[in-house]
Design brief:
Length: 77
């Protein structure tokens, strides 16, 4: 099927995977989830690992407990 289908011009094929609720007054109260999971590859064990939490509205929290490594990318001079 072509991207521009005259019979269904508004058919949705893709949707947002990342959902976030940000509270800029209290970033620790912010929530996020990636639906259905961390990977878009159906063969990955992370493919649907966040589907159940998403169904239960058990979104992940941002905050100090989510801290991890930092990758800093700088242009080469």
């Amino acid at each position: 099927m072509a991207i521009q289908d005259p019979e269904r011009p508004y058919r949705d094929r893709h949707g947002a995977g990342l959902r976030m609720i940000l509270d800029f007054a209290d970033l620790d109260a912010s929530r996020f989830i990636v639906v259905p999971g961390q990977s878009g590859n159906p063969l990955s064990h992370h493919y649907a690992d966040l589907l159940e939490p998403w169904r239960r509205f058990a979104w992940l929290r941002l905050g100090p407990d989510m801290a991890g490594d930092t990758l800093l990318l700088e242009p080469q001079r």
